[in-house]
Amino acid sequence: MKKILLTLLLACLTYWSMAQTKQYTIISAIPHVQDSTFNMTIWNGPQTRAAQGKIRNGQIYYQDTTSSALVIRLTLPAKKLFKRSGGGYIPVKSQSIWLIATPGSTIQLNGHLSDFAEVYPNGDRENEVLASLTKIYHPLLNASANIKLRLNQDSDKMDSLEIKKLQAEQEQIDAEAKQVMEAFLKKNPSSIAGLYYMNDMLLRNMITVDFVRMLLPEVDKQYKDSPYYTTVVSRVDGNRYQAGHPMLILASPHTFDGVAFSTAQWAGKFYLVDFWGSWCSPCIADFPAVRRLRDTYPDDLHVLGIALDKEAAWRNAVEYHALDFPQILNGSAELDFVARLNVTGFPTKILVDPNGKIVYRTSGGGEKEFAQMAAIIKKWKDTFQSGSKTKKDL
Question: What pTM does this model have?
């Protein structure tokens, strides 16, 4: 009997593994949509990719395959959805349609377009959970963005009282949106949407690590193998890597030259970890200062760049900016150093001393930060060279 049960179990497992990758379908019922191309950003945990689809006969029909749950941001090209300001626009989640695709699912998008995408998904529990948030949350985001747009465009025509009134109204809307999000996360920690937004809100510093830590025990077992869950756990754990805490060893095969790298080889030296991206102008602006700091202490300081980027853009940026220090492309799971160190802003810089302890951490860049790091290294050199302390005393 046991052999029969074991055989059946193995057969079920084999079937499940073979059935993992299935087709998903997105369809819509949205009035007054013109035939065109739409853009999608697709998340599979911390990994993202871009895709495009076609609107035909005024509706969306898109098919692809997946072996896991995907969070999808679908953006239509309708001009009225974009908050144009100056030469660009104000990015806001409510300008796009959000949905979740799982293996074998069909997602129906219903609603209409106003000055934001009042279109919501249904078809399964995951999308119903997501829609329960976006139907309340997105109108608030849109209202806040409209005030910001008005202030950007017309503040020179307003008196100070009118400006303050609008700013107070925006603050009230933002506070309400935060309450909506927190209530949603408390109610739905066991959902793809809940886990996605835990990470997203942590990344934007809109919720605290302690708040998320409180929610994690409520996540059902079936979600704990999800990359959305493991990313959140890594980010919560990574919050401990602040000044005064020992630094983890950073090791990865995803280097620019293809040779596996580990910071273990820098034991006994200072090293600076520079988190950057080709899309981040403050990151790029800091490169000359990074080089100057390294070249000021050539025998004492190493530099490691870790990029959150698309591989082609990363490689082009390394070559274009002639980055002559080791470079790693951020990966997933154990190689997702952005999550493991809870990096929530770019650029982020972490200075590690010769004993492997974090002595300085900053986000945002600028000359002041480099002056502070130089002072830390100089003080260590002066103190150590004077012989008053050993390395481990510092």
Answer: 0.81
Domain with CATH 2.60.40.10 in the chain: 2-203
Q: Which residues contact 119 (CB under 8 A, 6 or more apart)?
A: 28, 30, 97, 109, 110, 111, 112, 113
Query: What percent of the chain clears pLDDT 70, i.e. is strictly above it?
Result: 93
The pair of structure tokens assigned to 342 is: 């809870």
C-beta separation of 293 from 365 below 8 A: no
| Extended strands (E) in 30-116 | 37-44, 47-56, 59-66, 70-75, 83-85, 88-90, 97-101, 106-113
Do 338 and 323 touch, CB atoms closer than 8 A?
no
Bond preceding residue 288 cis, omega within 30 of 0: no
What is the per-residue pLDDT across 315-349, written as a single tens digit (0 to 9) for each? 999 999 999 999 999 998 899 999 999 998 899 99
CA atoms within 13 A on the CB side of 51: 17
Q: What is the DSSP letter of 158?
A: S
pLDDT at 387 over 80: no
Q: In the prediction, which pLDDT does 155 show?
A: 84
Give φ, ψ of 113 to 5 degrees.
-105, 125
Q: How far apart are CA 236 and CA 213, in angstroms?
A: 7
pLDDT digits (tens, 9 = 90+) for 218-232: 999 999 999 999 999
Residues 48-72 have a mean pLDDT of 95
Query: Topology of domain 251-393, per CATH?
Result: Glutaredoxin (3.40.30)
Number of C-beta neighbours around residue 378 at 10 A? 13
pLDDT tens figures, 137-190: 999 999 999 999 999 998 888 999 999 999 999 999 999 999 999 999 999 999
Cα–Cα distance, 208 to 62 (Å, whole number): 37
The H-assigned helical ranges of the chain are 2-18, 125-154, 160-187, 192-203, 209-215, 227-238, 281-296, 311-320, 337-340, 367-385
Which residues does 294 contact at the CB level (< 8 Å), separation at least 6? Answer: 272, 301, 302, 303, 325
Q: How far is CA 353 from CA 9, 239, 379, in A?
A: 53, 19, 12
Q: Report the alpha-carbon distance of residue 195 to residue 215 in Å, rounded.
A: 10
Q: Range(s) for CATH 3.40.30.10 in the chain? A: 251-393
CATH domain 2-203 topology:
Immunoglobulin-like (2.60.40)
